[in-house]
Design goal:
There is one protein chain. By secondary structure, this protein is α/β, with parallel strands linked by helices. The protein contains six helices and six strands; from the N terminus they run E-H-E-H-E-E-H-E-H-E-H-H. The chain has a six-stranded mixed beta sheet with strand order 2-1-3-6-4-5, sandwiched between helices. Strand 1, helix 1 and strand 2 form a beta-alpha-beta unit.
Length: 181
């Protein structure tokens, strides 16, 4: 899976807030902040980066996929935060759909777990729209639960989001280097 371009997709945006946090910023803001940090780190490492959104506006799922499918030698990484009715739910999970995406998911998952202390929810096969319709290796990262008071208080901290961004970027670079996690 050689690639020199990374499509970084900040989940939600505009009229779609994503998950509502216990306190503080909603998912769309946290995802954008994290995605922008990931993009900056990847650019410094010499990769070409396309961001599906760079501020708080709405981008359809179809537009996100079209941006990705237009790129050559690219991968697609969607950044999200999670929500559950069960207040104690916690952890990081990475979703993939195509077989070409499973190692990318595993590389990101293994690094993201080191960003802050949380549960390993593993890598999971799911047919989310942005994964199923993507012609590029594609993953969707759920980087913690804003519905969990303890986890949310970490995720609201920019220093923690910087560590998460560094971890996601490290997973992407590991994939580019052909690492088997």
């Amino acid at each position: 899976g050689f690639f020199d371009t990374v499509v970084v997709d900040a989940g939600h945006g505009g009229h779609d807030p994503g998950a509502r946090s216990v306190v503080g910023k909603s998912e769309k803001h946290l995802a954008l902040d994290t995605a922008r940090r990931v993009a900056a780190i990847l650019r410094r490492s010499g990769l070409r980066v396309i961001e599906t959104r760079t501020s708080d506006y709405f981008v359809t799922l179809d537009q996100r996929v079209r941006i990705s499918n237009r790129q050559r030698n690219a991968i697609f990484v969607s950044i999200h935060y999670n929500w559950a009715r069960r207040a104690r739910a916690s952890g990081v999970e990475t979703f993939f759909y195509g077989p070409r995406s499973s190692r990318l998911a595993a590389n990101i998952q293994s690094k993201a777990l080191g960003a802050y202390r949380t549960k390993n929810r593993g890598i999971k096969y799911r047919g989310f729209y942005v994964l199923r319709n993507n012609r590029r290796p594609a993953v969707l990262c759920e980087l913690g639960f804003v519905s969990n008071a303890g986890e949310n208080s970490k995720l609201q901290n920019p220093a923690v989001r910087q560590r998460i961004a560094e971890a996601v970027a490290a997973g992407i670079i590991a994939e580019r280097n052909g690492v088997n996690p």
